Amino acid sequence: MEKVKKQINLRKIFIRYIFAFSIGTIALVAFHLILFKIGVNTGVILPGNYYEKQIESQRDAIVKAEQGDDRILKQYKYVVYDLSGKIIQGNIHKNDARKIWNNIQNNKIGDGGYYYAVMERNKDVCVVLYTLHTTYKNPSLQKYLPIPDVCLIILFILSFVAEVLFLSRYFGKSLSKEMLILKKVTDKIQKENLDFQVEQSKIIEVNEILDSLVKMKVELNDSLRKQWEMETKRREQIAALAHDIKTPLTILRGNAELLNESMLDSNQGKCNEHILKSVDEMEMYMESLLDITKSEEGASLQFKQIELQNFIHNIMEESAICALDKRLNLITEVKDIPKFIYADEAALKRAIMNVMMNAIEYSPANGDLMFSVETTNSKVRFIVEDSGRGFTKEEMNAATDQFYRGDKSRNSKKHHGIGLYIAKNFAKEHGGNIYLSNSEKLCGAKVVLEISIT
Q: Its domain of life (predicted)?
């Protein structure tokens, strides 16, 4: 990894966040206080004691005003009583006016958010109501907005939330950018793509993790390379050994066949038959061994356009021939198939025939064997069903594993646990899969080999 000149640890990043948050909050408080002061200085906002001072400055004029003259009073909430407490005039509801008179008699200076300015005149008592909180000078603002104090608090809360969201997003994006470096490295290691350069982070703790991942990457790369070399040598040795064994087997078979033409007694004839049978089995084992090495190598497939109807016809013919020994009743069903598919014809045939031979092997004599083809969700499904005893639960989960031979009652000397394994690998290379279940129609095993149409 390339060296980065300037790095920082997570503790300092957290301190920066707290510092930025604190400065931002102080700035918000100062801004709203200044905004409030400007509103007061420009007269947009009236101070809390504005109406109290206004009333006091007009007290003499209110006292001297004649009864019925409300030119001064109409700008306030007020009520005028006679000396006995009877309401003479005012702009306050009568029930509220009576309550105000009772409060005054009990020496209360206010109620319901209002304070009372009581002015005794010659023939009556005038009570003017006022508040001690800030208000707007403009009547429209006063009508539709909360009082300036509340409005200021609401505005501050909204600004505070916006500050939290902005700082969280900013620092979150910065951390996510550094964490993305870790994610890229782990994703490449997970995919075994180990030939890459690791980008350096600005965070010390992240770089420490990256250093560990780099060491792991190097060790994993060396391990995979050695494993690949060992696997390559193993496959080459197996292939060479299988090829070399064919020569002595051919000689052994030739000699045994020559002995069959000689005059052998019954015991010698039986021994020679056992020799030929053993040679057949050994050749079959060698073919299976070569099949395994080829499937492990993942030989490149030769994709081409296949005429599906003709391909299915060939599969049916070969299956019918293979089923003759057990006199099986081969049932075929083909519906809604495309005219062409794009696949490796030889590999597809081999995979289907592997499944078919398994079904023939496990079917009882004179039983039923079903081969059907259908299309669903852009997939072609080749379905093989037999009338044997079917799969156990364990076999459904593991029958496609390499060398799995399952229940002894479903085993034979011809079964080596690679047929379904090879078929599964082929299906996956063609964008599909293989599914095992039990047939509802024939009550035996059911294998579905599915491949993509394109």
A: Bacteria
